Amino acid sequence: EGWDAFPGAQEALDLQCGHNPVGPLRPGVRQTYCAAIVDDGTKDASSRSPWSYTPICVDPVDNSDEASKLCTYTVSSLRGGPGMSIITKPDIAAGLTSMLQHPEISWLEKQRGVPFIPDTRVSYDIKELPNKGYGVISTAFIPKDSIVMLELPYMLKISDPSPWNHKGAIALMQQAAKRLTSKDQSRLLQMARQDKGYVLDDIFRTNSFRVTVEGVGHAALYPEIARINHDCKPNTIIRYSTQTLALEIVAYRDIEPGEEITLSYFALNLRYHQRIQAIKSWGFNCSCSFCADEATRQKSDRRRDDIARILQAITRKENITRDIVSKAVGKLEDLVNEEGLSAQMGDLLYMVADACMAAKDFQLAREIGEEALKVQRRYAGFDNDRTQDVVKLLETVDELEHGEETAFASAS
Ligand SMILES: C[S@@+](CC[C@H](N)C(=O)[O-])C[C@H]1O[C@@H](n2cnc3c(N)ncnc32)[C@H](O)[C@@H]1O
Questions:
Q1: Does residue 192 line the site of ligand 1, with CB under 6 A?
Q2: In the list 53, 74, 90, 240, which could disulfide-bond 85, CB 3.0-4.6 Å?
Q3: Which residue minimizes the CA distance to atom 23 of ligand 1?
Q4: What is the DSSP string of 166-228?
């Protein structure tokens, strides 16, 4: 509906390549399979399009038929900006073809309802801070919900490299970096490190975000976003678009000029001991207000335990009545607000909707699922995998309800 008004949309939809678990953006779209490109030196430039170089690949350790090569792919410019290298499997790279060949994203903006550009009034500086290395400081008032930063990754690698030989994977990383422009290479090497192990591994370990590409986990480096320091009660959250690979930093509350821009490096709802454990790998201490003193920690942990208990209780079939569920959702909302976890409310509502679906209360599952969808679109991203999970749940609810109706009709 209305797709013709968006140049590039139809071509991009028609070009949806295989290996895309999110599925077509529109029901009924023709699904074509873009060819997986590997390290075949005989191929000319046009046959390795959209990549700027012939990929370099390594074979898997287990050379069975299902095992795939691991390759490094580079584009010299991503959507008119800096280039990008990705170390991934050929079928995943093939899945990126439509995004790379059809960079026109105005139709995607329409779909998500928010432009893919940061609010130009928003500004920040990257500065050296005591005991933190560099950090990002706001230079103007940033209202809640505005996009503070929006970037594309300049390097990505598949999260689980275990099927491939370690030495081979390291060689690919080296090539992936070398094929970037010299400006990007020097930016990459200036990123924070912990001085442990191989330099590019260290840079990935210290700075990368876990994203999904074609439904598969990858570590991604975003140049300036990587300068944001951690806080367990952050003033921004991350929103990720699976179709464009864009990562956004969104104001979680109003931010005053001069405030440091922070985000949480892990899920917001961890308990104190889990936070300490998670932070250990970065080598600094928890200094947010939730870690401040024993009493605050305990109070916060208790609320977080309560959230888990409510979710646990709702999975029991006998608790799926409109009255009990709406009380539980109300209580969850209170706890989430007190703990600053609204960005996770969509995930919680998704779990409640799932429990309603399991208990066959389809009406309730739909109502709560629709609420979950709104929250996920806002906080996770309009095409994020977490958002797509809710879309799938709503589709399943429709199918199950329809199935029950048909079964009932044929029985009567
Ligand atoms: C992704 S980088 C953040 C930017 C980094 N400070 C820089 O100079 O580029 C992660 C590293 O920043 C530092 N860092 C992040 N959050 C911190 C915090 N709350 N306190 C102290 N150091 C922090 C740690 O050294 C960590 O390994």
A1: yes
A2: 74
A3: 132
A4: HHHHHHHHHHHHHTS-HHHHHHHHTS---S-SSHHHHHHHHH-EEEEETTEEEEEE-TTGGGP
Reported in sequence order, the residue ranges of 283-401 that DSSP labels E, i.e. its strands, are: none
Residues in Cβ contact with 68 at an 8 Å cutoff, skipping those fewer than 6 apart: 60, 89, 90, 91, 163
Ligand 1 pocket, residue 284 CB under 6 Å: yes
Residue in 41, 40, 37 with CA at minimum distance from that of residue 50: 37
Q: Which residue has the tokens 């109300």?
A: 330
CA 392 to chain centre: 17
Neighbours of 248 (CB within 10 A): 21
ipTM of the prediction? 1.00
H or E segment and range at residue 322: helix 322-338
- Closest residue CA from atom 4 of ligand 1: 227
Residue 83: CB atoms within 10 A of its CB come to 18
Domains of the chain listed by start with CATH number:
3-263 (2.170.270.10), 290-411 (no CATH)
CA 280 to chain centre: 23
Ligand 1 atom closest to Cα of residue 288: 19
User: What dihedral do alpha carbons 194, 198, 199, 203 form, nearest 10°?
Assistant: -60
- Alpha carbons 24 and 16: distance in angstroms, whole number: 7
CA-nearest of 86, 400, 390 to 217 is 86
Q: Which of 151, 189, 205, 229 to mutate to test the pocket of ligand 1 (most atoms within 8 A of CB)?
A: 229
Mutate to test the pocket of ligand 1, among 124, 126, 132 (most ligand atoms within 8 A of CB): 132
User: What is the block-wise mean pLDDT of the chain (412 residues), using blocks of 10 residues?
Assistant: 45 44 40 64 71 90 76 88 92 85 66 74 88 95 92 94 88 93 92 89 93 93 96 94 90 96 92 88 82 91 96 93 97 96 96 97 97 95 92 96 73 62
- How far apart CA 173 and CA 18 sit, in angstroms, is 25
Extract the tokens encoding 124: 């920040």
Relative to the CA of 128, which ligand 1 atom is closest? 8
